[in-house]
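Q: How would the structure tokens look for this protein?
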Amino acid sequence: MKSDVVFSGAVRRYDLKRPGVKVGYGLMTLFCILAAIVALLPILWVIISGFKDLQEFNRGVKNLTDKRYYIQFLPQSFSLEGYLKTWNQFKYVRYYLNSLAVVTGSVVTAVVVNGLFAYGLSRLKPRGWKVVYGLVMATLMVPATTSIVPLFVNITKLGMGGSFIPLWLMMGASAFYVVLFKNFYDAMPTSLLEAGRLDGCNSLQLFFRIVLPLSMPINIVIVIYAVNAAWSDFLLPYLLLGGTKLETVMVRLFTYRTSDRVNNMDIIRAIVFSIIPPILLFIAFQRQITQNVMSAGIKG
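A: Here is the predicted structure in token form.
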């Protein structure tokens, strides 16, 4: 039988025997439930609204008694016909694959390129590394939108328009990711790297064989940021991939919205399809994500 002194979270078991703590714990639980409802309600509203037809969405349901229309949260029927129609119009499979290619390349470059850069600043420390790190920190104060014009001009001059490569490389040049990686690498025991050098590893082998595998907590954090940024990015993919067969989901959603053949319900259903992959990803890896984020917060 476990002792009562064992921690079960922020509140100990025997603390709940005190009336004040029990009331506070109940209020905190109620607040968390209300916060979860507020956070999930917009998503549920969008998904449920997708089952309605255009008249039901705009005017509501007609009451047989007073012949007036009333807005209802739940639809009259949960028919998938509208979703299937929008899916066929949108041709989501191709745009899902395009977005998946962008996300995959962005995650690889975000972890490997930024990790290598931070590894050099944290462990190798070449001459002038403090100046370089100071410049990296200074770029955090520059808004990302100010660089979109020169970035697009340079990409065009290099002839890389209509390609996923610029989107991948952009994720490999993030000062925020470099700072996160460096702070994590600074706390890593030096003895592990020294043991690797005794086994004959060079600096590059140390990174891929020791540092990168042992950095899974911060790697997962970077992956979360990279997936969210790459999937939801619109402006640069629109400038580079707009009008091509490589359009991402967000770019296609914009062009689909401006079409004359769609209505509000088609747009809502298209939005549902665009948010499904991130939701499924979080549900599938929820435990790993929360555990690794907590570990990164403690170790970093």
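The chain has two domains: 14-78, 82-299.

Residues 82-299 form a domain with the MetI-like fold fold (CATH 1.10.3720.10).

Upvote if useful.
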